[in-house]
Amino acid sequence: MELADVADDLTEVLLTEVQIHDKIAELARRVEHDYAGERLLLVGVLKGAVMVMADVARELKIHVDMDWMAVSSYGMSTESSGVVRILKDLDSDLTGRHVLIVEDIIDSGLTLSWLRANLASRGPASLEILALLRKPDAVKVAVDVKYIGFDIPNAFVVGYGLDFAEKYRNLRGVAVLAPHVYE
Ligand code: IMP
Predict the structure, then answer these.
(1) Which of 17, 136, 159, 181 supports an S-S bond with 171, CB 3.0-4.6 Å?
(2) Residue 82 belongs to what domain range?
(3) What is the pLDDT of residue 75?
(4) The domain spanning residue 125 has which CATH number?
(5) In this structure, are residues 124 and 106 in contact, taking their beta carbons and an 8 Å threshold?
(6) Which of 9, 78, 162, 182 to mutate to test the pocket of ligand 1 (most atoms within 8 A of CB)?
(7) What is the pTM of this model?
(8) Half-sphere exposure of 3 toward its Cβ, with a 13 Å CA cutoff?
(9) What pLDDT digit, counting tens, does each position of 94-134 carry?
């Protein structure tokens, strides 16, 4: 789906498909360089990271394994609580593996800092994070993210895997959702 197909639901286009593609290519070159000669395991966080994972994996010119986790924050609040429940765990044993967590967006950073600690306890040889988007609040939690795509403003965004009520994940770009859609 193109941004233009739902233009009335969006207030501002933040990233086009081309901008995202170019940035992912740039990040992939760094990853290839950093993991040259190593077997890398990409861990995607469902469901938002599906698009980033698919594009990063295909852009990489090194062999990678791919695995998936699904997590959800406890509670009814729209704010991330930092208390996380595993809905689907990895199939892989992380012992001695070089692991790269692939995420769509870091907002409060609470989900990712929990996830990082959880995976770190499983004995990987190395553990790093790649996130396509980062919001300003992410700086409050000192989560060490090695590969960042774009710093974006503190607005609710959709597209390229990110949803509102499960919609807009299949948008090719990333845009700010218009208030009339959620109010
Ligand atoms: P955190 O724990 O606050 O960093 O939450 C990160 C998760 O919240 C992401 O993986 C997304 O699923 C979701 N999220 C945060 N901001 C947005 C947004 O602007 N649009 C859609 N989902 C978001």
Answers:
(1) 159
(2) 17-155
(3) 53
(4) 3.40.50.2020
(5) no
(6) 162
(7) 0.94
(8) 20
(9) 999 999 999 999 998 888 999 999 999 999 999 999 999 99
